[in-house]
Amino acid sequence: MREIAVIGIGQTKVDEHWDKALKELAFEAAIAALQDAGRETAEALFVGNMLSPLVSGQNQLGTLIADWLGIRGAEAVKIEAACGSGAAAFRAGLMAVGSGEIDSALVVGVEKMTDKAGHDVTAALATAADADYEVDQGVSFVSLNALVMRRYMHEYGWKHADFAPFSINAHANAVHNPYARLREPITLEQFEKSSMVATPVNLLDASPTGDGAAAALIVPADRLRGDVKRILVAGSGAATDSIAIHDRREPLFLSAAYLSSQQAYAQAGVSTTDIDIFELHDAFSIMSALSLEACGFAERGQGPRLGLDNEITVTGRVPICTRGGLKARGHPVGATGMYQIVEVIQQLRGECGKTQVDGARIGMTQNIGGSGATILTHIFRQG
User: What pLDDT is stored for residue 220 in this prediction?
Assistant: First the structure.
């Protein structure tokens, strides 16, 4: 595999974009990435998206967006892996360029979630769960995470308030991210008084959905000359678990996170102590704890301790969600993995202002599809 560099990034604000179509959001992020790279085109386009046929009534996204971008004729394909679609598209582009088959790939994660009523979007999201044994029993993703969180609290003795630092940290960082949806700080009191959604998950445990797109242009590192903004892809891993939580050997352990992170660590030649930023998939606060544990940053059952000890802030031992994470930046599901990658690239370039992690050289992203069924981990380093 050739060494790959990210040379351009772009994103839109996560919001309710009533005035923009799915292809327009993708266009804005993609053009921003090309302009950032100083390029006009790419040989291939990989689109990460989950909900377009169910919410927007549109398939063939690769072809549609390639046409809209003015690169008609280029190879273009949509990649779907539930909420892990963005990172799955990035990995597909990475393998295509790394193999030598092509010399440039534009990867775009895009999702439009506000064109239908909330119950329709909830039903669409539920298609990433087990249709026979979860969805048909009336279980939503919020309730699935609530069941996991309740069991975790029972097993390890944590209180609900012990998870508050994950949300508080995310909101504190989002204040300084102009692309974030929820740019307001929150307090412990607000967290504890927040409306309950599915006990013990309350409103401030859960990430908001929205519309948005994020993109990156990748090329072989050895083809770059001169003063080019580049961040190297040091490691990439992907793994799966059962879709249904009850089928897992250990429902409180994200085995796919463990496997994919171990793959990425081995490729990059690093360990947890080398990671300066970790953009994890905090769709729900319980997922933050489980991801930190599966990736080796905390012992089993001790994930909340990192938040309580202020180790997850931008000045802490394991800075997470430095631009707001899913919780406050927002979670346009098929685009989320690409937002995480764009944000780590910003950190490694030193472009994050008040949430910049001092001396950041190596960053990691982890994108989760479903309730832990598909997990992709990427590691980046300064070039």
Answer: 97
pTM strictly above 0.85 = yes
- What's 112's DSSP letter? -
331 is catalytic: yes
Of 171, 281, 331, 378, which residue is the catalytic one?
A: 331
The residues near 225 (Cβ < 8 Å, ≥ 6 apart) are none
Overall CATH class of domain 140-206+232-382: alpha beta
CATH topology of domain 4-117+210-223: Peroxisomal Thiolase; Chain A, domain 1 (3.40.47)
Burial (CB count within 10 angstroms: exposed 0-12, middle 13-18, buried 19+), residue 246 = exposed
d(CA 320, CA 292): 10
Q: Domain segments of the chain: what residues? A: 4-117+210-223, 140-206+232-382
How sure is the predictor about 117, in pLDDT bands with cuts at 50, 70 and 90? confident
Which listed residue (83, 295, 321, 352) is catalytic? Answer: 83
